[in-house]
Specification:
about 525 residues, alpha+beta, Beta-Lactamase, Heat Shock Protein 90, five-stranded antiparallel beta sheet, five-stranded mixed beta sheet, 9 helices, 14 strands
Amino acid sequence: MSIKDTSKRWFSVFLPEKFQLMLYYSITSFVVISLVSYVVGQVISRTEKNELIKRSEKYAGYMVANINYVLYEEFFTPTIEKYGYVDLENNQEQFDKLDKIIKSNIYGLNLRGIYLFDLNGQIIYSDVPEHIGFILDQGKNKQLDLALKKGISASALKPPDMKDSKGVVIKEDFLESYYPIYEYNGKIVNKEKQVGVLEIYQDMEDLHVQLARTHRRAVIMTSSGMGVLFLILLLIVKQASNIIRLKTNQIVEARDNLEEKVEDRAKQIKETYQELQEAQKRLGRSEKLAGIGTLAAGVAHEINNPLASVAGCAEGLIDRLDNLDFKTNDDREVFPDYLDTIYNETYRCKLIISKLLDFSRQKPPVFGKIDINTLVSDVVKTVGRQTDSKKVDVLLTLSSTPPTVWGDDNRLKQVFTNFISNSSDAIQHEGSIWVSITSSNDSVQITFKDTGYGIAPENINKIFEPFFTTKEPGKGTGLGLAICYGIIEDHEGKISVDSKGIGHGTTFIISLPIHNEK
């Protein structure tokens, strides 16, 4: 299976064709449990972190208060009584004594560093001797400024590998805290008189371990609680899903039955409508043909004999031209032309009348087995000789399996001859006509395609109407395609036409049913 197919399969899980309650519930519950467990773990971890920092700050406050008291009791008071002043920078004895007192009081308290500032921000003591005398610029350390100027203790949790305010890189997490140092009168602290600030670094290396342990406990507890809730709701949802599935199946079954009935009824209505349209077309065409037939039968008999007399007189005059005495040479030249015109036009009228009589007689066809390949080949040979003068190529492609239809060969030959003649007339100088025969199990298609001037879109639906023609006056009666349409209908066939417009040629397709026996 390709990667694309695999991705489609997994994608279909999240977008199934049908709504699946259990699937969506399971996925949604898993996502919700994961998110809630993570969020709860984060909230509890953050809360625990803040609590640990607060406890550390409170613990540091106790340490500083103790160191503050010890500094006065064991160092500041005795030193001032002995020396009268305190100078840690220049008096090594004082510094050593203070260093010993501080280290003895912070031993085992897990402190990473300790600094003692005076009120000017100068370091007067540090467990790192080279930092003594270093002055921190005020305004750059907010925690120190709060402790110096406002007497407010302040702390900040520092991540590992970060430089402190003295430029020292600390490898572990540490809590940097600043606490004000006050004067003691005996054992009573005088918070009205601040004498300095004590900075301590508490080791917070175990903070992440405690937070991870807390987060893990919170996630386990939350997941367990929500897991139990999930199982309880799963049973409820499963029961609801079964009921929904049952009702859905009933609705789907009813819908399918309704759709089948609607589809069958729509199909019947469509077929009936199509049959009605075809019947209306046939009725309209039959009415036109019947009217034309009645008119033709009445008119033809009335004018056929006078036309025959006119033609006979014209022919007699033509035979006597040499014996006639003309007054002028102009009469001698013009009179024969007039007689020829009368003769030709009279016989053209007789030809039209003959076609009208043929059209009106409605003779019953004589059906028999016809090999379409043979019939079309004969027509192409006959009509092809008439198109040589126009340089029109008639190309024939026969069916590989000779199709046999049941029909009237003379009337079908009339149809095929008419289509080839029309295609030839549509080609003005030179071009091609393709005649092809294809067959299927139940029908045969005869296609006539030409490179002529084509048919305008607005005329496509008119070409089978009697007396409609696009040929020049005197070159067509407009009955050919109407007669062909009627012949094909008598053979239970169909005619379709396609043209892309003027200049793009025309394609006619005749479809006839194949019958082995009639």
